[in-house]
Amino acid sequence: MNYIVLDLEWNQSAFGKENEVEGLPFEIVEIGAVKLDSEKNIIGKFSEFVRPQVYKKLHHITKDVINISESDLKKARYFKKVADDFIKWCGEDYTMCIWGVSDLTELQRNFRFFGVKNPFSAPLYYFDIQKMFSLLYEDGKIRRSLEDAVDMLALEKDRPFHRAYDDAYYTAKIMQKMNLECVKGNFSVDYYAPPRSKKDEIYLVFGNYSKYVSKVYDSREELMEDKDVLSTRCYQCGKLLRKRIKWFPSGKIYLCVAYCSKHGYLKGKIRVKKSDDGGVFAVKTLKITDEDTVQMIRERRNELRKKRRERRLKSL
What we know:
CATH class of the largest domain: Alpha Beta
Number of domains: 2
Number of helices: 11
Low-confidence stretches: none
Number of strands: 13
CATH topology of the largest domain: Nucleotidyltransferase, domain 5
Helix content: 25-40%
Strand content: 25-35%
Mean pLDDT: 94
CATH superfamily of the largest domain: Ribonuclease H-like superfamily/Ribonuclease H
Shape: globular
Distance between the termini: 65 Å
CATH architecture of the largest domain: 2-Layer Sandwich
Structural class: alpha+beta
Order of helices and strands: EEEHHEHEHEHHHHEEEHHEEEEH
Largest sheet: 7 strands, mixed
């Protein structure tokens, strides 16, 4: 089994979000990748510009960050030909590795928009090396920039940053230093192709938390009526739990607290995400927590209740 270490550069509408083309917020202009074997030796490279077809004028951020000119891109091949060759280069048996969480989603959006057959399985499991780096060397929550991680490991900086192949190369060099066996159980799930039926819903248990990904619903209201979305089950003993604090909205998420007589309090969090076809699905996590966190959640709920009461009184 090989590792494909991927990095992309992309462009967007230079004339504001209102001129964004539906289904393609970001158009890929460069694909860079490094292939590692199972021992993390570099055994191949892929590096190619992509000629834009939708956003032909480069956004100023794209120009400033990645230092690519429009004349460079006019000489390149179109996405479908580059993507077809990239897919062939990847081979059959591999795990995708990226620094962060965005590249695989945007790659699949470009596949769909330009009519390239998506070679990835659904769900797509991958290694987020940025997250794994934090789990190995820090607290698991901090997310370092690629250059910061290179500096922390005292790796040689023998090429620039913010170009697709160069960033893939540095990510591969970081992987070579990491003990992947210690963190490979903390793989990530890409949500570009969320489950479409109950039987395909995802339930995963990691070292210290569980994750559930629901099927797609037409509306948030329908989603939040699903008993599976709202249920709280201890991921250590499997017991279905009663809630001490019922689900309540807090900003862009929903929170709750459940209690297991054997393992204590569990903090629940639901993120509602949009699918590309306009539907919504839930990503729910449950994690054992302490009484201080429970008290913070309770205070947050009470504060939100108070604000809602005040708004209702003002509207009378």
